[in-house]
Amino acid sequence: MSKLITPIFLILLSVGLFVFFTNPTYLRSKELKETSASYNQVLDKSKELIALRESLLTTYNNFSASDVERLKKMLPDHVDNVRLIIEIDAIALQYGMTVKDASVAVQENTTQGDDTESIFEIQQDDKQKMQLSFSVVAPYNSFISFLKDLEKNLRIVDIESVSFTASEKDLYEYEIVITTYWLNPTL
Length: 187
Hints:
Helix content is 52%, strand content 22%.
């Protein structure tokens, strides 16, 4: 009987060790391995992002200072409505016009992110919009030349609407609404 109790005791001890120690430890090590794999993926992604940042920084540093200034004028990193109005007024002055009744409306961009997206997959809009409305008084040919020069200006603008009021002379009052953009510095 003593010979039978020892093997049964050892079998029960080994089953107990497996159920209460070995199996939980194995499952925990499996979880840690999966967590480690996900951390390694994030680390690999961060290395890719660092390499991309370095590549873009090298490309940016290869631009001449004048090209960088032209890019900043085309798509600035802040809203500068006063400078834009001055630029438009300078273009208008070439044709004997003055900008009047200028008003600005900043349009907020809202981005909605899904909570299940990873930090690397969130897409955000990196530009902001501003609408500028103003009026000018000019003959038709001068107004067309003004619009062509506005189109050739380095600052990106979209003409949203043009309306006009006729008068008895060859002068028309044009109401213009444009949209311009700037980069969102918080991204």
